[in-house]
Design goal:
Distance between the termini: 94 Å
CATH architecture of the largest domain: 2-Layer Sandwich
Low-confidence stretches: none
Number of domains: 2
CATH superfamily of the largest domain: Ribosomal protein S6/Translation elongation factor EF1B
Largest sheet: 6 strands, mixed
Number of helices: 4
Helix content: 55-70%
Radius of gyration: 39 Å
CATH class of the largest domain: Alpha Beta
Strand content: 25-35%
Order of helices and strands: HHEHEEEHEE
Shape: rod-shaped
Structural class: alpha+beta
Length: 182
């Protein structure tokens, strides 16, 4: 008789257990998704903080990038210009600088380019004759040109002309210019 009296409680208890068992599946799914989302947020948070930091200094970064581009333009030909055109232009600028100083050029040649640190390095061999003051003016003009004509080597040799004038020098210069690679 006790069993008959407690039967409704047993049915209610078993029914509650079944409901709990059925509800435990979606609840465990929601809990696992919540833990996964928390882990992803913890993983993303440092990246987001860096992005926010970059966003706060975006104007400074744009200015720095513009300054860097201007600095590269002062020392290298742009990638949009063909490498042979860059070499020929550099050779003509070197010739104008040396001839503008009063020296005579006996030869000049653009040598094959070499890849170096993201740039094409274009060497130029130039041979000329003149006096020491003329050479000094030519070297100053070469140093002031943009994109930069860098002097890699300079070899000097005195020439005897037999005249009482200024000592003549034969100068052999190896210059190079940089060309941005695309």
């Amino acid at each position: 008789m006790n069993l008959l009296r407690s039967r409704p409680y047993i049915v209610i208890g078993v029914s509650m257990l079944m409901v709990l068992a059925i509800l435990s599946v979606p609840v465990s799914y929601v809990v696992s998704k919540h833990r996964w989302a928390e882990a992803k947020l913890a993983e993303i948070e440092p990246r987001y903080a860096r992005l926010k930091g970059l966003e706060s200094v975006a104007e400074e970064l744009k200015n720095s990038a513009a300054e860097a581009e201007a600095a590269v333009a002062r020392v290298a030909y742009p990638a949009s210009l063909d490498i042979s055109q860059a070499g020929n232009d550099a050779q003509q600028r070197a010739r104008r600088a040396v001839e503008g100083a009063g020296m005579t050029i006996s030869s000049s040649q653009v040598l094959p380019a070499q890849k170096e640190n993201g740039f094409d390095r274009i060497p130029i061999a130039l041979r000329g004759e003149g006096t020491l003051p003329q050479l000094q003016v030519a070297l100053a003009a070469l140093a002031a040109s943009t994109p930069a004509l860098t002097i890699e080597s300079l070899s000097l040799r005195g020439i005897s002309r037999g005249t009482g004038g200024a000592q003549q020098l034969q100068a052999q210069l190896t210059l190079f210019v940089l060309h941005s690679t695309p």
